[in-house]
Amino acid sequence: MPSVSRRRVLSGAAATLTAAAVAACDPSRRNAPAPTTGTAPRSAAGTDTSSSRGSGPGTGPSAGPRGGPATGATGGPRKADWRALAASLDGDLVSRFAPDYAEVKQLFNTRFDHARPVAVVEAAGPADVSETILFAQRFGLRSRPRAGGHSYVGASTLDDGLVIDVRRMRAIRYDPAGRVATVGAGAQLYAMHAALARHGRSIPTGTCPTVGATGLTLGGGLGIDNRAHGLTCDALTGLTMVTADGTVRRIGPGREGDLWWATRGGGGGNFGVVTSLSYRTHAARPIGVFLVSFRWDQAGAVLRGWAARARSMPRSAWCNLHLEAGADGSTGVRIVGACSEGDQDAQVAAMERAVGLEATSVSTFGKAFMDGVRYFAGGTTSSRQAFVAGSDVVARMSRTLSLRCRASWHVGRRAAGHR
Length: 419
Ligand SMILES: Cc1cc2nc3c(=O)[nH]c(=O)nc-3n(C[C@H](O)[C@H](O)[C@H](O)COP(=O)(O)OP(=O)(O)OC[C@H]3O[C@@H](n4cnc5c(N)ncnc54)[C@H](O)[C@@H]3O)c2cc1C
Fold this sequence. Notes:
By secondary structure, the chain is an alpha+beta fold. Helix content is about 25%, strand content about 20%. It contains twelve helices and 15 strands. It has helices at about 5-10, 80-90, 100-105, 125-140, 190-195, 215-220, 225-230, 255-260, 300-310, 345-355, 370-375, 400-415, and strands at about 90-95, 120, 145, 160-165, 170-175, 180-185, 200, 235-240, 250, 275-280, 280-285, 285-295, 320-325, 330-340, 360-365. The chain has a five-stranded antiparallel β-sheet with strand order 5-6-10-8-9. Strands 1-2-4-3 form a four-stranded mixed β-sheet, covered by helices on one side. Strand 8 and strand 9 form a beta hairpin. Flavin-adenine dinucleotide binds near residues 23 and 212. Flavin-adenine dinucleotide binds near residues 146, 152 and 185.
């Protein structure tokens, strides 16, 4: 198995490159920081057994707890098969005919509302996941797991296949003896922070409150704690996964070595369906926040100075850079940072020295831990929205790269419908 240095990603990515395209939970909040961008998963999970696709209502589940009128099936599961699946589940089978189908199948990004899975299985535990995987394989149906539903590319839904929805598994437990948090695969980031903060603990995550722990972790997990505590996947101490053969596997150090390696930055959940994750925690502390703005015509110099500073700043500090454009035609270059409480003014001074320019505006303040979580999250939840976003990781910011960042920013704006 090749060895990939995550440390290199952490230091080389210059405090996470977010200059090119930023998916904000609420991009209209011009004065609040947008979350760091994460990975765009490559494809569906390893359970995606692409073979005969169902088509039309004939392949739909016909009866189950939340199924609708009976329909026959040609070549796919029959009414009785869907009934048997529904009866075998502790969770629910939501068919195309269920009244809440349209809502249950939604992802965060409204661009994927057109997707029509043949059904969504709301799995209540690993056994439900295993049943569903085997059912899908038996009938040649494709299946995709869905956790927080924030995939940039709609990878957690599909047409005519089965969605394995793990949101029902969202319990969050903390073991004070081992200082380990264990969360159901459907847990969301804000809920995790709120639950762990009660114990004075935290894990390094992204900032968007409704992103799922599973998608975030399997893709790496970028956020304001990365420089001090690593990526989210670095904090993993173990997980439970159902693989394509229907087996429930406990994965961790010394167990299922390849899967253990692959789930810590392997990208996008392609190896099975995760049902729970355990993380090492760190102390939840107050933070200092610094916001530094520059003029748009200084963007190139700011990009290079920011990248240089991010390579040398202490690990207790983090910052990202936003190239912003408002619907009213306004533009802005803004650095958003977090550091140990009390250090924020020193961070601003060091940033201005690195950029070699005086900022047009500066704001610094301290936040108690959960206030900081809410500040960077833009609240405790986030509304669905349509967006186009992408991510890239670069080792060093050169003049050419800073120009490319600006170019991709323009491409992103056009894709999102701006002129
Ligand atoms: C508004 C917004 C803000 C974001 N902010 C950040 C951020 O601050 N930091 C960061 O690193 N990233 C961020 N991201 C990116 C986010 O981490 C990824 O899109 C992540 O994959 C979403 O995970 P999810 O569980 O919410 O999504 P889902 O769409 O449910 O899943 C994402 C992928 O994981 C697979 N998957 C889902 N559940 C399982 C499972 N149980 N087992 C195996 N595979 C599974 C899906 O099939 C899909 O391929 C953000 C995204 C958005 C939309």
